[in-house]
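In practice, a research group might receive sequence data for several interacting partners and want a quick structural hypothesis before committing to experiments. The following worked case mirrors that situation: the sequences arrive first, and a predicted assembly follows.
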Amino acid sequence: MAQIELEHLTKVFQGGTLAVEDVNLRVEDGEFMVLVGPSGCGKSTLLRMIAGLEEVTDGHIRVGGRDVTDLAPRRRDVAMVFQSYALYPHMSVRQNIGYGLKVRKTPKAETKRRVEEVAGLLGLDELLDRRPAQLSGGQRQRVAMGRAIVREPQAFLMDEPLSNLDAKLRVGVRASLAQLHARLGVTTVYVTHDQTEAMTLGQRVAVMRDGRILQVDQPQTLYLQPVDLFVAAFIGTPAMNLVEARIDGDDAVFGQFRVPLDPRRRPPRDARSVVLGMRPESFEDSAFAPPEIPRIESEIEVLEELGSDVHVFFHVDAPRIGTEALVEASEDDATLLVEEKALFNARVDPRTKAEIGSRLRLALDPHRFHFFDPKTGKSLLAASPAPEPEPEVVLTT
Amino acid sequence: MSAQTQIAPAPIAPTVGRPRRSRRRRLTRTAWNLVGILVLVVLAFPVFWMISTAFKPDDQINSLTPTWFSLHPTLAHFGDAVHRPFFWDDVKNSLIIVGVTVALSMALAFLAAVALAKFRFTGQKLFIVLMIGIQMLPQAGLIIPLFVVLRRYGQVNTLTGVIFTYMTFVLPFSVWTLRGFLLGIPRELEEAAMVDGSSRLGAFVKILLPLVAPGLVATSIFAFITSWNEYIFARILLNDGAKQTATVWLSYFTGTSRHTDWGGLMAGSTLIAIPVIVFFLLVQRKIAFGLTAGAVKA
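A structural hypothesis for the assembly, expressed as tokens:
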């Protein structure tokens, strides 16, 4: 076990593509760190640099205090789990798991003992003599994990290890990954493009974009205090509602709505035009909200009943936020209809009487507003004193 | 059958239409089968004739009314063939040439294919194009230049000269084929081995080599057959009876136009075909395509 330190790490591919740009990151001993970002943001390249599979253009990598920047992968004492599992097809499960020990010339008896111990831990005892082709997706995933665990390395590097599993299996394996980490306590760097995975697994999460780390924080902090528009839009499902707003004295004006600001949480006085962000849970059906919270009224376009919650969608008479950041952040949620106006998502109490086409009064809590600079995308709250922890925030992931 | 067809009253149309359609399908299939059998006969008949002639007494071979099988088969032609001068020398030469050609070209082709499939270097495309392009030149056009080059280095009338010549056409094909096999092996497998503790060479030998085995078998069969059956280059490069190959040795049966020892020729041909068949039977079991199945994804 060891800490991993990345210092001014930069990767330029042949042909000049800048994949990773001046990344500084310290993964503490035993920490589960998730690198998350849209595809092509450099997160996998960063992981492969730590593994030694990509050459470092500039900067340093230290594992357990030892500079490994120029060492071959096998000398770094890290184990990697690949997205495709990369099991050796001509070897049995036993040989696959034991390969790392065999090439390191571990005595046969010890190899056997450790392989069987790991197989027991992962429930692979019965499968030790099978070939990868004879295993299901979930079993292959476990073999890939076993191959990493058996070596007792200083760190685990995982490159989207769950993305080849079907949705149901993924949730189960995700939980066992967290358990496994709690049990083994090995420093782990985990790459994913799935922010749900990032939020549930990571002790800390680094959000990446265009080769740079935008924010590294605990999942809850990322959710509550995103440093910029990209992090705000990327973290959280359903995504944060974003709209261009005007600050008019002590009110925020967006589309057809005017909502008084909370004096404890507002952008700097000189900000006139902002991007206003509201998470779906900042809304509530007026019937179930405390009376002091401001109200808005709108026509319901779409209504989704999820049992525990109801999501209502309504239009706001303001253009959609079309910044590059948002296009990239929400590339996964396909919108079939091209909506020129912003479509807001509000989570309301399941007892709501809302119906499609009817008008609904919604309470909107200005204490949960986020403000971003429309030009730089940076949060305008960061400059002001840190906002108080928000009440009763529930991750709807 | 869906429930609907069961409920439907008197389905007349299908009962009329179906037999007609299936009859047509059966006819088509029979026609194709006949074509297949015809091709097989055309391919197999010379082999059959060669073997059957080898066992016929001379009077039946030269008779004006051909016979399919001899009722009194004889091994005399085999005896003649084996006792002809240089038979064992030339078979031994052929085995040496083929063995060395196959072993050398497999080793070199594997390394070259790894370079082409797994690394990027300047001139890579040009290299591949040249390799394929040169294959397209007619071999007859290469005989004289090769002869001149080999003579300059004292390699005419030596087995090494022939081995060198055979490798010039076995290698490009083998490299090309193996490259295809290697491209099908995901990069993550070597990377996993390298993170697990192998050196780059270790990963090639322990991971890539076993996985590319079917490709090695396929190309070695090609290399074996090509060099075992080759005649023209061997005929021109080797001119000493004891240094020639089996195919050249065979050609001496048709020495005079007046009289060819057909029985001996066919017996010799049959004997010389045996090593190829044995080699194929030995290695064909190793051709297990789809060995990489299960390496990645489902």
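Before designing any experiment, note the following. The longest helix of chain B spans residues 12-55. Chain B touches chain A at residues 120, 186, 188-189, 191-200, 202, 206-207, 210-211, 291-298 (CB under 8 Å).
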